[in-house]
Amino acid sequence: SQTIHQWPATLVQPVGSPLSLECTVEGTSNPNLYWYRQAAGRGLQLLFYSVGIGQISSEVPQNLSASRPQDRQFILSSKKLLLSDSGFYLCAWSEISGKYNEQFFGPGTRLTVL
Amino acid sequence: AQSVAQPEDQVNVAEGNPLTVKCTYSVSGNPYLFWYVQYPNRGLQFLLKYITGDNLVKGSYGFEAEFNKSQTSFHLKKPSALVSDSALYFCAVRPSYNTDKLIFGTGTRLQVFP
């Protein structure tokens, strides 16, 4: 069966520090991968979307970047964090235009920028 | 513009009573519709989906949803609510087969009182 991991689970970082959040998927090949941010426990904002290694689509202009160095690894980064980067970050995967159209979410990373 | 609306920020229901969480959508073409549930500080869990076929879809934990094309709605229902159903519920739509991205509603908090 497929599983998705995110780490760390929680992170407290000072303003101006770098960021690296990691997401890995097991049990599937060539998945679509997504990064979302959830602010204030409500709506989901799609940040990045990837259909393959090195292929990243940015959905909103921001202080963050994403990379996909391996097929099942998706990394969210920042060179200098802002207070507004605080939130709950969720990684998700889906089959590429496949039978299973739903997205499956990881457990999330709670980021607090102080 | 393609969108999903969850008109209620919060729904309160007594344990044992039926519950309904509303969702309407606005997309061109035939949508794929989804419901997810989120417990505090956790990722989203997939509940059910409508792709095609029967308008009444049954999912996890006794939940079901009814697709109504004329009303462009996909309301989530359960015949008898449990206190453990208390969570944040998200409706989402995949606008067409040509995209794997989902559009999420803003979420509805369900509170089931004992």
Treating each run of at least 4 consecutive H or I residues as one helix, how many helices of chain B? 0
Low-confidence stretches of chain B: none
Structural class of chain A: mainly beta
- Indicate the overall shape of chain A: globular
Mean pLDDT over the residues of chain B: 93
Characterize the biggest β-sheet of chain A.
7 strands, mixed
Helix content of chain A: under 10%
Approximate strand percentage of chain B: over 45%
Q: Tell me how many strands of chain A there are.
A: 11
Strand fraction of chain A equals over 45%
Strands of chain B, total number: 12
What would you call the shape of chain B?
globular
Radius of gyration of chain B equals 13 Å
Report the order of strands and helices of chain B: EEEEEEEEEEEE
- How far apart the termini of chain A lie comes to 38 Å
Q: Largest chain-chain contact? A: A-B, 25 and 23 residues
What's the helix count of chain A? 0
Backbone structural class of chain B: mainly beta
N-to-C span of chain B:
41 Å
From the structure provided, what is the oligomeric state, counting identical versus distinct chains? heterodimer
Q: Regions of chain A with pLDDT < 50 over 5+ consecutive residues?
A: none
Can you put this structure into words, describing what you see?
The complex is a heterodimer of chains A (114) and B (114). With 114 residues, chain A is an all-beta fold. Chain A is built from no helices and eleven strands. In chain A, strands 2, 4, 5, 6, 9, 10 and 11 form a seven-stranded mixed β-sheet that branches. In chain A, strand 7 (65-70) and strand 8 form a beta hairpin. In chain B, the strands form three sheets. In chain B, strands 2, 5, 6, 10, 11 and 12 form a six-stranded mixed β-sheet that branches. With 114 residues, chain B is mainly beta. Chain B contains no helices and twelve strands. Chain B has strands at residues 3-5, 10-14, 19-21, 24-26, 32-38, 44-50, 56-58, 64-68, 73-78, 87-94, 103-104, 108-113. The chains are: A mainly beta (114), B mainly beta (114). At the A-B interface, strand 5, strand 9 and strand 10 of A face strand 5, strand 6 and strand 10 of B.
